[in-house]
Amino acid sequence: xxxxxxxxxxxxLITAVGFASKGNLVKAIDIDQARLSxxxxxxxxxxxxxxxxxxxxxxxxxxxxxxxxLEDVDESEVVFICVQTPPQLNGAIDLKILMTxxxxxxxxxxxxxxxxxxxxxxxxxxxTTENMIMxxxxxxxxxxxxxxxxxxxxxxxxxxxxxxxxxRIVIGTNSAxxxxxxxxxxxxxxxxIIITTPSTAELSKYASNALLxxxxxxxxxxxxxCERTPNTxxxxxxxxxxxxxxxxxxxxxxxxxxxxxxxxxxxxxGSCLPKDLSALIAYAQSIKEEPFLLKAVAHVNKYQPKxxxxxxxxxxGGLENxxxxxxxxxxxxxTDDLRDSPGLKIVxxxxxxxxxxxxxxxxxxxxxxxxxxxxxxxxxxxxxEAIEDVDVCIITSxxxxxxxxxKYLRNKKLIIIDGRRIxxxxxxxxxxxxxxxxxxxxERIYIS
Length: 448
Ligand code: UDX
Fold this sequence. Notes:
This protein is of the alpha/beta class.
């Protein structure tokens, strides 16, 4: 099938190479010439396993081509719109970029009577497809244009694998014909295909991400209770919760992956969960349905990073001139994405308290941290360097490198604050003078 993808960002580029890998003829379109020239050289403007290799393959095989002109959608039967829908200051979704792309596309279609299907892949609040996007094409006289909402469920760090091995394909449309065509496009991916209303499809994306956020904030709430309950540890408490047979699949042989979100830490971040949670809260309020639970999920998450700073205050008595290493400033391990990163929220608080901060993250290059370097923050180039001469180190990402911290520990006076509970075994904890952790009550803090 001939398809076009508008927007060569994280979702658009992965969608483009993914469909190209199934033999479709794909035209990837972006207005950003600098981004296009990078992609033309086979370079992916973000860190994502496997994308670069596929990009180069299909650019050479010519079933993936690039353009900066919307006019080039003309041959396509299906046009995907994958532009960003960032949050406004009040948390509500900002549709400006999306609506501009929709209007420009409707203008291009005006010149042709060809029937097409426009697929919105950008995350939008319920009602956007039917009440805002469809009327643009109808008013433009594009009566042969069918509209579909098709949410993506891609995770940073495993996005290509998530696209090629989807757990579900959701097609939100009022057109039986469009439903059939898009179902056919996704058939080679061998996943359950759900054809539903556009609003159900739009809301299902938010409901999915809000559930993940809820699981994390629930885990952090249990951790808070453990921190004030002698002889408990949130890792033990949630470990028992995970054993519930209802979290097991295949007759109890395998534990469902989702239990990994039932883990206490320093709060969720990234470009999706925080944005989608605040957009859903704002949407619920706009329809006069107060989202008490979702607001509480956001509230717990807002204060979680502060709990780690409080542990530093308890350990050191103050922040001024204290030397503190923050290990992991990407929002999670396996990515270099700093957006809404709990680690950086902690760095900001430490700097406010006039601490001397060192940052280390295996995937984040110092260029991304220029504004912190300008504030005198040291950007370490290795874990060893980061912890060799500091009073405290705070683990704020689950990057696998941090599990081996004891290999580099020479500094016996070090206080470790484990914000991701990745140092499980007690022998690892014995490497430090003192070990604090999320979800550990004060009498269980390890002091050598
Ligand atoms: C998320 C959803 O997982 C994905 O389906 C959706 O399409 C986009 O938003 P992403 O934000 O890229 O993907 O990453 P994810 O791995 O879900 O991490 C989100 C937050 O949850 C991070 O702060 C991460 O640290 C945390 N997390 C992630 C956990 O606490 N436990 C996990 O097992 C995975």
